[in-house]
């Protein structure tokens, strides 16, 4: 790599830390972390219920868990897109 590219990367890394980048992304798209948390909650609940599934086959239980987790994430992303559209087009910020 040339020294010019190294200096650009070092400036970019020095400009903001990982935490500040993460917080900035959460402010820009607030429903993504909600979707991630919901996904983790559904998977955690599914793993907990794995012990008490009764006569249900393992593959069927995993399919149900996957569909629930994906549904939560798709719902959160849809809400995020609607929120962004509302914020951008209906409630116009002062320019």
TrEMBL record:
It is found in: Mitochondrion membrane. One of its GO terms (biological process) is cellular response to hypoxia. Residues 1-95 form the HIG1 domain. The chain crosses the membrane at residues 30-48, 68-86. InterPro entries: Hypoxia_induced_domain, RCF1. The keyword Transmembrane helix applies. It comes from the Eukaryota. Keywords: Membrane, Transmembrane, Transmembrane helix. The keyword Membrane applies. GO terms for cellular component: mitochondrial inner membrane; nucleoplasm; protein-containing complex. Its main location: mitochondrion. Pfam families: HIG_1_N. This is HIG1 hypoxia inducible domain family member 1A. It comes from Anser brachyrhynchus.
């Amino acid at each position: 790599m040339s020294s010019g590219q190294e200096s650009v990367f070092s400036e970019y890394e020095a400009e903001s830390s990982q935490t500040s980048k993460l917080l900035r992304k959460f402010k820009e798209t607030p429903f993504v972390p909600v979707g991630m948390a919901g996904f983790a909650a559904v998977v955690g609940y599914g793993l907990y219920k794995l012990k008490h599934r009764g006569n249900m086959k393992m593959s069927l239980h995993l399919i149900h868990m996957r569909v629930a987790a994906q549904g939560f994430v798709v719902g959160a992303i849809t809400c995020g897109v609607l929120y962004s559209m509302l914020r951008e087009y209906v409630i116009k910020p002062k320019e």
